[in-house]
Specification:
By secondary structure, the chain is an alpha+beta fold. Helix content is 33%, strand content 21%. Strands 2-4-5-7-6 form a five-stranded mixed beta barrel. The longest helix has 40 residues, at 10-49. The termini are close together.
């Protein structure tokens, strides 16, 4: 009997190839499903952002019913508690700084955290931008934003509450550290103010970024293409005549 390296049997090659083929097709199908989901999400956001602003009470009813109020225009009236503003690390048009989240006290005594907009890093101290701290009752129109269920990524730093620097929007921690009255009730979502100018030009409103990349079709074509190439290779390999020993 001649010694030599044994070759994989055609049945084994076929079995392994079919498993890999199924995985590639499954990945392509998953990307198609993600494509439909992303297209639906983009359509929903586009419809919401172009709708007329809702009164806060109607927005709260919608959130209570669906748990999703993201990017819905809302109008709310109240008084800012500027001494409780929280600072969320952000960039805007290439500059580093903070988005200013300020508690707005409503007529019913509750509070909602409003993202009033961006201030440069060296103007974090509100004493350097007093003009923008409007007093008295104000009406704010902006986009409602869902609260986050938790830290969105382990790559993000932990919030530095002591220094009033937040790297992710922890609504409860923001509110707790803002010096609100004991037992204060919060509206269950944020509001990002629109680009209505503030006195003195700061904070710069209208900083909500809506950017949803949609590359799922490209990914689906890639996975399906790999599956087709694998199928072609398997067919050619299995049709090749076996060499006589």
């Amino acid at each position: 009997m001649t010694a030599g390296r044994s070759r994989p049997r055609p049945a084994l090659l076929l079995g392994l190839g079919l498993v890999l083929f199924a995985i590639l097709v499954g990945l392509g199908t998953w990307q198609v499903q993600r494509l439909h989901w992303k297209e639906g999400l983009i359509e929903t956001i586009d419809r919401r952002t172009h709708a007329a602003p809702l009164p806060l009470a109607d927005a709260e009813k919608e959130f209570a019913a669906s748990g999703d109020i993201d990017y819905t225009p809302v109008t709310v009236t109240g008084t800012f508690l500027h001494q409780g503003e929280r600072h969320f690390y952000a960039t805007w048009e290439g500059d580093a700084g903070f988005n200013v989240y300020t508690p707005l006290q409503l007529d019913d005594g509750r509070f909602v955290l409003v993202n009033r907009g961006f201030v440069p890093y060296d103007l974090k101290d509100p004493a350097r931008r007093r003009q923008g701290e409007v007093a008295g009752k104000v009406t704010v129109t902006g986009l409602a934003r869902n609260p986050l269920p938790g830290k969105p990524s382990m790559m993000l730093p932990d919030n530095d509450v002591a220094k009033n620097i937040f790297y992710w929007k922890d609504r409860d921690a923001m509110a707790k550290s803002a010096g609100l009255p004991a037992g204060a009730m919060l509206v269950p979502f944020f509001i990002d103010a629109d680009n209505t100018p503030n006195p003195g030009g700061l904070p710069v409103g209208g900083v909500t970024i809506i950017d949803l990349p949609n590359n799922h079709l490209q990914y689906a074509v890639t996975w399906y293409g790999l599956a087709a190439a694998l199928a072609a290779i398997l067919i050619l390999r299995l049709r090749r005549p076996a060499k006589k020993g």
